[in-house]
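Thread: Newbie trying to understand structure tokens

Hi all, I'm a second-year student working on a class project, and my supervisor (Dr. K.) asked me to get a predicted structure for one chain before our next meeting. I've only ever worked with sequences, so writing a 3D structure as a token string is new to me. If someone could post the tokens and maybe explain what I'm looking at, I'd be very grateful. Here's the chain:
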Amino acid sequence: MKQHVDFLVLGLGGIGSSALYHLSKRGLDVLGLEQYGIAHDLGSSHGETRIIRKAYFEHPNYIPLLQRAYELWKELEQDSGQSLFNQCGLMVAGPTDGAVIRGVHLAEELYGVEVESVSPADALERFPGFRIPESFEVTHEPEAGFLHVEDCVRAHLECAQAQGAAVCLNEQIHAVKVSDRSIEVTTDQRQLTATSLIVTTGAWSSGCLSELQLPLEVVRKVLFWNPVREPVYNLDAGRGSFFFDMPEGEFYGFPSLDGASVKLAEHAGGEIVGDPSQIDRALHESDVPRVSHFVEEVMPALESQPVRHAVCMYTRTPDGHFIVDHHPANRSVVYGAGFSGHGFKFASVMGEILADLATTGATSLPIEFLSARRFSE
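---
Reply by user tm_fold:
Sure, no problem. This is what the structure looks like when written as tokens:
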């Protein structure tokens, strides 16, 4: 016997939990399926913190989406009664002619994003604990900060359930069948039909939407927590997040939340993953040197060897931008994929966008540059 639901959301991580929240807020009949538990650590939406910023050096087209994302994170805080966003600021350092610094200033010029240029002398005083290369330009974005990632996922789901959404956990998706007339999903527990479907399955997107042959690559990423030698990185001392565009790569991190360690990682790179369910979560000797070298070079008040680690996955597209689109066989099926690496900050607005597409077929927000069509043109 098949069960029917009007709106079905597959995958309840950062993006899917938000889509469920926005659909349920509209009073719709909605069911969300998740193969693991709530705010689990087996995908891409975990690890305590994610940076959020408006001076978006990746592409200025994201900035209108970020402006709406900020509004929606505040709305979720009000709805949930939780503090989810810490506006501690973000220091960015890199070559003046590098893509990162140029992108920061482009956001400032095009959208009036507040960006402070920090002189080398001021940087020493404002950002203790960092050895900033002499040739680097330093900026500070006071509106930036970080999101408490697991708390954001829980808040979206708890509010969605309070608004009437049904949530089913630990349910494996076996097949998704889409035609111009029907939407069928088979799990290890049931068969479902839906009037509309949103697919937000992260590293499992290619499997759920295999017929689309999405150009997605899943890579293993390691996050590190390194012990502090001196209390110069502490959040309670007014320190913020940081991003360094180094000659050998891009590195980022957060203020110390516990006074004992700092979370940091390399943004680029990563080993390609075959089966995301079988990712290697152990820490290997080869995982450590690049971040340790960065610490030794730039953060002298931090130990170079981590005290703990976590492994997550980035799901990336060839151009580094997200894919948000309708299924070509059925416009009642919409999906979002390729978010990893810089997507979580957009979760609040991407959920709204996907809910718009699923309910009305369109959104007022500018997402044309994220269409899958760009890979076939």
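A couple of things are worth pointing out once you decode it. Residues 177 and 184 are 5 Å apart (CA to CA). The mean pLDDT is 97. Feel free to ask follow-ups in this thread.
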